[in-house]
Design goal:
Its EC number is 1.17.1.8. By secondary structure, this protein is of the alpha/beta class. It folds into 2 domains: 150 residues, NAD(P)-binding Rossmann-like Domain (Rossmann fold, 3-Layer(aba) Sandwich), CATH 3.40.50.720; 83 residues, Dihydrodipicolinate Reductase, domain 2, CATH 3.30.360.10. It contains 10 helices and 11 strands. The structure holds NADPH dihydro-nicotinamide-adenine-dinucleotide phosphate (NDP) and the ligand O=C(O)C1=N[C@H](C(=O)O)C[C@H](O)C1.
Protein backbone atom coordinates (compact mmCIF):
# COMPACT_ATOMS: atom_id res chain seq x y z
CA UNK A 1 0.00 0.00 0.00
CA UNK A 2 1.22 3.50 -0.85
CA UNK A 3 2.51 5.30 2.23
CA UNK A 4 1.02 8.63 3.26
CA UNK A 5 3.60 11.42 3.25
CA UNK A 6 3.39 13.79 6.21
CA UNK A 7 4.96 17.16 6.95
CA UNK A 8 4.79 18.73 10.41
CA UNK A 9 4.68 22.44 11.31
CA UNK A 10 6.14 22.88 14.81
CA UNK A 11 8.70 20.71 16.55
CA UNK A 12 8.29 21.79 20.18
CA UNK A 13 6.88 19.98 23.21
CA UNK A 14 3.95 18.61 21.22
CA UNK A 15 5.32 18.55 17.65
CA UNK A 16 8.13 16.21 18.74
CA UNK A 17 5.68 13.65 20.11
CA UNK A 18 3.51 14.04 17.01
CA UNK A 19 6.56 13.35 14.85
CA UNK A 20 7.47 10.36 17.00
CA UNK A 21 4.04 8.75 16.56
CA UNK A 22 4.16 9.24 12.76
CA UNK A 23 7.71 7.79 12.68
CA UNK A 24 6.48 4.69 14.52
CA UNK A 25 3.52 4.10 12.20
CA UNK A 26 4.44 2.15 9.05
CA UNK A 27 1.49 3.60 7.07
CA UNK A 28 3.16 7.03 7.10
CA UNK A 29 6.44 8.56 5.99
CA UNK A 30 7.58 11.68 7.84
CA UNK A 31 8.99 13.85 5.04
CA UNK A 32 9.94 16.99 6.97
CA UNK A 33 9.27 19.16 9.98
CA UNK A 34 9.31 22.96 9.98
CA UNK A 35 10.27 24.93 13.08
CA UNK A 36 10.86 28.59 13.79
CA UNK A 37 14.52 28.95 14.62
CA UNK A 38 17.74 28.41 12.80
CA UNK A 39 19.45 27.53 16.08
CA UNK A 40 21.79 24.58 15.97
CA UNK A 41 19.76 21.41 16.08
CA UNK A 42 19.76 17.94 14.57
CA UNK A 43 19.24 17.77 10.82
CA UNK A 44 16.51 15.13 11.08
CA UNK A 45 13.53 14.66 13.38
CA UNK A 46 14.33 10.95 13.78
CA UNK A 47 17.89 11.55 15.02
CA UNK A 48 16.67 14.37 17.31
CA UNK A 49 14.24 11.85 18.80
CA UNK A 50 16.99 9.31 19.42
CA UNK A 51 16.55 7.00 16.41
CA UNK A 52 19.56 5.85 14.41
CA UNK A 53 17.93 6.97 11.17
CA UNK A 54 17.80 10.20 9.18
CA UNK A 55 14.09 10.68 8.52
CA UNK A 56 12.09 13.92 8.55
CA UNK A 57 14.39 16.75 7.58
CA UNK A 58 14.21 19.69 10.03
CA UNK A 59 13.65 22.93 8.09
CA UNK A 60 13.68 26.46 9.58
CA UNK A 61 10.65 28.58 8.64
CA UNK A 62 12.98 31.11 6.97
CA UNK A 63 13.79 28.44 4.35
CA UNK A 64 10.13 27.98 3.39
CA UNK A 65 9.89 29.69 0.00
CA UNK A 66 6.88 30.15 -2.30
CA UNK A 67 7.57 26.88 -4.11
CA UNK A 68 8.40 24.90 -0.94
CA UNK A 69 5.42 22.55 -1.32
CA UNK A 70 6.17 21.87 -4.99
CA UNK A 71 9.73 20.94 -4.10
CA UNK A 72 8.75 19.06 -0.92
CA UNK A 73 5.36 17.48 -1.67
CA UNK A 74 3.41 15.70 1.07
CA UNK A 75 -0.14 14.36 1.38
CA UNK A 76 -0.87 15.89 4.79
CA UNK A 77 0.47 18.86 6.75
CA UNK A 78 0.00 18.63 10.53
CA UNK A 79 0.31 21.92 12.43
CA UNK A 80 1.20 22.03 16.13
CA UNK A 81 3.26 25.23 15.95
CA UNK A 82 1.88 28.64 16.81
CA UNK A 83 -1.12 30.69 15.75
CA UNK A 84 1.09 32.46 13.16
CA UNK A 85 1.91 29.12 11.49
CA UNK A 86 -1.16 29.18 9.24
CA UNK A 87 0.08 32.34 7.45
CA UNK A 88 3.06 30.45 6.06
CA UNK A 89 1.38 27.42 4.50
CA UNK A 90 -1.32 28.92 2.29
CA UNK A 91 0.53 27.43 -0.71
CA UNK A 92 0.12 23.94 0.78
CA UNK A 93 -3.63 24.24 0.27
CA UNK A 94 -3.08 25.38 -3.33
CA UNK A 95 -1.05 22.18 -3.87
CA UNK A 96 -3.96 20.08 -2.60
CA UNK A 97 -2.21 19.09 0.65
CA UNK A 98 -4.71 18.16 3.36
CA UNK A 99 -4.25 20.14 6.58
CA UNK A 100 -4.70 19.13 10.22
CA UNK A 101 -4.32 21.95 12.72
CA UNK A 102 -4.18 21.42 16.46
CA UNK A 103 -3.14 24.97 17.31
CA UNK A 104 -5.37 25.81 20.24
CA UNK A 105 -5.24 29.59 20.61
CA UNK A 106 -6.06 31.11 17.22
CA UNK A 107 -7.20 34.70 16.96
CA UNK A 108 -10.47 34.98 14.95
CA UNK A 109 -8.67 36.18 11.79
CA UNK A 110 -6.27 33.21 11.86
CA UNK A 111 -9.13 30.79 12.33
CA UNK A 112 -10.89 32.45 9.38
CA UNK A 113 -7.75 32.05 7.28
CA UNK A 114 -7.53 28.36 8.18
CA UNK A 115 -11.22 27.91 7.37
CA UNK A 116 -10.78 29.68 4.02
CA UNK A 117 -8.15 27.07 3.06
CA UNK A 118 -10.86 24.41 3.43
CA UNK A 119 -12.49 25.78 0.25
CA UNK A 120 -9.64 24.24 -1.74
CA UNK A 121 -8.35 21.36 0.39
CA UNK A 122 -9.59 19.13 3.24
CA UNK A 123 -8.91 20.82 6.60
CA UNK A 124 -9.46 19.33 10.04
CA UNK A 125 -9.21 21.71 12.97
CA UNK A 126 -9.28 20.56 16.57
CA UNK A 127 -7.98 22.40 19.65
CA UNK A 128 -7.82 18.97 21.30
CA UNK A 129 -7.13 16.11 18.96
CA UNK A 130 -7.42 13.30 21.51
CA UNK A 131 -10.20 10.77 21.06
CA UNK A 132 -10.91 11.04 24.78
CA UNK A 133 -11.58 14.78 24.89
CA UNK A 134 -13.57 14.61 21.68
CA UNK A 135 -15.78 11.91 23.22
CA UNK A 136 -16.08 14.02 26.40
CA UNK A 137 -17.22 16.96 24.26
CA UNK A 138 -19.84 14.92 22.42
CA UNK A 139 -21.04 13.30 25.68
CA UNK A 140 -21.29 16.71 27.42
CA UNK A 141 -23.37 18.01 24.54
CA UNK A 142 -25.79 15.08 24.87
CA UNK A 143 -25.94 15.46 28.66
CA UNK A 144 -26.76 19.15 28.39
CA UNK A 145 -29.73 18.25 26.15
CA UNK A 146 -30.93 15.66 28.69
CA UNK A 147 -30.47 17.90 31.76
CA UNK A 148 -30.74 21.48 30.46
CA UNK A 149 -31.14 22.96 33.95
CA UNK A 150 -27.96 21.53 35.50
CA UNK A 151 -25.28 23.92 36.73
CA UNK A 152 -22.24 23.38 34.54
CA UNK A 153 -18.61 24.24 35.27
CA UNK A 154 -15.50 23.44 33.23
CA UNK A 155 -12.14 22.78 34.89
CA UNK A 156 -8.94 22.77 32.86
CA UNK A 157 -5.51 21.95 34.27
CA UNK A 158 -2.20 22.37 32.47
CA UNK A 159 1.53 22.80 33.06
CA UNK A 160 2.72 25.92 34.82
CA UNK A 161 4.12 27.57 31.68
CA UNK A 162 0.85 27.59 29.70
CA UNK A 163 -0.16 31.24 29.66
CA UNK A 164 -3.43 31.14 27.76
CA UNK A 165 -6.79 29.63 28.73
CA UNK A 166 -7.25 26.16 27.27
CA UNK A 167 -8.63 26.24 23.73
CA UNK A 168 -10.30 22.94 24.51
CA UNK A 169 -12.15 24.45 27.48
CA UNK A 170 -13.26 27.39 25.31
CA UNK A 171 -14.57 24.99 22.68
CA UNK A 172 -16.45 22.98 25.34
CA UNK A 173 -17.94 26.25 26.66
CA UNK A 174 -19.07 27.21 23.13
CA UNK A 175 -20.59 23.79 22.55
CA UNK A 176 -22.49 24.01 25.85
CA UNK A 177 -23.46 27.66 25.28
CA UNK A 178 -21.67 28.80 28.44
CA UNK A 179 -20.02 32.17 28.99
CA UNK A 180 -16.35 31.20 28.89
CA UNK A 181 -15.34 34.14 31.11
CA UNK A 182 -17.55 32.79 33.92
CA UNK A 183 -17.55 29.00 33.67
CA UNK A 184 -13.95 28.03 32.86
CA UNK A 185 -11.78 27.35 35.93
CA UNK A 186 -8.07 27.20 35.08
CA UNK A 187 -5.33 25.59 37.14
CA UNK A 188 -1.63 25.85 36.27
CA UNK A 189 0.69 23.56 38.23
CA UNK A 190 3.87 21.60 37.59
CA UNK A 191 3.98 19.52 34.45
CA UNK A 192 0.35 18.51 33.90
CA UNK A 193 0.04 17.69 30.19
CA UNK A 194 -3.69 18.47 30.01
CA UNK A 195 -6.77 17.62 32.06
CA UNK A 196 -10.34 18.71 31.32
CA UNK A 197 -13.43 18.09 33.41
CA UNK A 198 -17.05 19.10 32.91
CA UNK A 199 -19.17 19.05 36.07
CA UNK A 200 -22.95 18.86 35.84
CA UNK A 201 -24.43 19.81 39.21
CA UNK A 202 -28.00 18.95 40.16
CA UNK A 203 -29.67 19.14 43.59
CA UNK A 204 -29.27 15.44 44.39
CA UNK A 205 -26.53 14.22 42.10
CA UNK A 206 -23.37 15.36 40.38
CA UNK A 207 -22.03 14.08 37.08
CA UNK A 208 -18.36 14.58 36.28
CA UNK A 209 -16.91 13.86 32.85
CA UNK A 210 -13.13 14.08 32.90
CA UNK A 211 -10.17 13.32 30.68
CA UNK A 212 -6.43 13.39 31.31
CA UNK A 213 -3.74 13.39 28.67
CA UNK A 214 -1.00 11.49 30.47
CA UNK A 215 1.58 11.87 27.68
CA UNK A 216 1.75 14.17 24.65
CA UNK A 217 1.91 10.94 22.63
CA UNK A 218 -1.91 11.03 22.99
CA UNK A 219 -1.91 14.04 20.65
CA UNK A 220 0.23 12.15 18.13
CA UNK A 221 -2.16 9.22 18.19
CA UNK A 222 -5.09 11.62 17.75
CA UNK A 223 -3.34 13.24 14.77
CA UNK A 224 -2.84 9.81 13.18
CA UNK A 225 -6.53 9.00 13.70
CA UNK A 226 -7.45 12.34 12.10
CA UNK A 227 -5.00 11.82 9.20
CA UNK A 228 -6.50 8.42 8.36
CA UNK A 229 -9.97 9.97 8.23
CA UNK A 230 -8.93 13.00 6.21
CA UNK A 231 -6.90 11.37 3.46
CA UNK A 232 -8.82 11.15 0.19
CA UNK A 233 -11.63 13.42 1.40
CA UNK A 234 -13.12 16.26 -0.64
CA UNK A 235 -12.11 19.85 0.24
CA UNK A 236 -14.06 21.05 3.29
CA UNK A 237 -13.84 21.71 6.98
CA UNK A 238 -13.78 18.55 9.10
CA UNK A 239 -13.77 18.08 12.86
CA UNK A 240 -12.93 15.32 15.32
CA UNK A 241 -16.40 15.82 16.85
CA UNK A 242 -18.19 14.91 13.62
CA UNK A 243 -16.06 11.76 13.23
CA UNK A 244 -16.70 10.67 16.83
CA UNK A 245 -20.41 11.65 16.73
CA UNK A 246 -20.78 9.39 13.65
CA UNK A 247 -19.14 6.55 15.58
CA UNK A 248 -21.42 7.16 18.58
CA UNK A 249 -24.48 7.01 16.30
CA UNK A 250 -23.18 3.78 14.77
CA UNK A 251 -22.35 2.04 18.04
CA UNK A 252 -24.96 3.48 20.39
CA UNK A 253 -26.82 0.49 21.89
CA UNK A 254 -30.61 0.39 21.58
CA UNK A 255 -32.44 -0.69 24.73
N1 LIG B 1 -4.93 20.23 19.58
C1 LIG B 1 -4.31 19.59 20.53
O1 LIG B 1 -4.70 18.47 20.88
C2 LIG B 1 -3.11 20.20 21.18
C3 LIG B 1 -2.75 21.45 20.85
N2 LIG B 1 -1.61 22.00 21.35
C4 LIG B 1 -1.25 23.30 20.86
O2 LIG B 1 -0.14 23.19 19.96
C5 LIG B 1 0.60 24.39 19.95
C6 LIG B 1 2.07 24.10 20.23
O3 LIG B 1 2.23 23.68 21.56
P1 LIG B 1 3.65 23.29 22.18
O4 LIG B 1 4.27 22.20 21.39
O5 LIG B 1 3.41 23.08 23.61
O6 LIG B 1 4.47 24.63 21.96
P2 LIG B 1 6.05 24.82 21.93
O7 LIG B 1 6.27 26.27 22.23
O8 LIG B 1 6.73 23.81 22.76
O9 LIG B 1 6.45 24.55 20.40
C7 LIG B 1 6.05 25.36 19.34
C8 LIG B 1 6.80 24.91 18.09
O10 LIG B 1 6.34 25.66 16.99
C9 LIG B 1 7.46 26.26 16.31
N3 LIG B 1 7.00 27.53 15.75
C10 LIG B 1 6.69 28.70 16.37
N4 LIG B 1 6.26 29.61 15.48
C11 LIG B 1 6.28 29.00 14.26
C12 LIG B 1 5.96 29.38 12.94
N5 LIG B 1 5.53 30.63 12.66
N6 LIG B 1 6.11 28.49 11.94
C13 LIG B 1 6.56 27.24 12.18
N7 LIG B 1 6.89 26.80 13.41
C14 LIG B 1 6.76 27.66 14.43
C15 LIG B 1 8.53 26.40 17.36
O11 LIG B 1 9.82 26.42 16.72
P3 LIG B 1 11.21 26.41 17.56
O12 LIG B 1 11.25 25.05 18.21
O13 LIG B 1 12.26 26.54 16.52
O14 LIG B 1 11.12 27.56 18.52
C16 LIG B 1 8.31 25.11 18.16
O15 LIG B 1 8.95 24.03 17.53
C17 LIG B 1 -0.09 25.29 20.99
O16 LIG B 1 -1.05 26.09 20.35
C18 LIG B 1 -0.78 24.28 21.89
O17 LIG B 1 -1.82 24.81 22.65
C19 LIG B 1 -0.81 21.32 22.21
C20 LIG B 1 -1.14 20.06 22.59
C21 LIG B 1 -2.33 19.41 22.12
O1 LIG C 1 -0.84 23.80 25.29
C1 LIG C 1 -1.03 22.58 25.42
O2 LIG C 1 -0.13 21.79 25.71
C2 LIG C 1 -2.39 22.06 25.22
N1 LIG C 1 -3.27 22.85 24.68
C3 LIG C 1 -4.58 22.48 24.34
C4 LIG C 1 -5.58 23.49 24.86
O3 LIG C 1 -5.25 24.66 25.03
O4 LIG C 1 -6.74 23.13 25.03
C5 LIG C 1 -4.93 21.06 24.49
C6 LIG C 1 -4.12 20.24 25.40
O5 LIG C 1 -4.77 19.99 26.60
C7 LIG C 1 -2.70 20.67 25.58
Amino acid sequence: MKKIKVGIWGFGKTGKLIADEFLKDSRFVLSWVVRKNKIKHSKFASSDLGYETNIGKIIPISDVSDNFFLKNPVDILVDFSHNYGVHSYKNAAKSGIAIISGVSNYQPEELSLLKSLSEITPVLYSPNITLGVTFLMVASHVLKKIIPNADIEIIEEHFKGKTEVSGTAKKIAQTLELDESKHINSIRVGGIVGRHEVIFGMPNQTIRLSHSSISRAAFGQGAIFAAKHLIGKMPGLYSMESIIADMVRKHCPTY
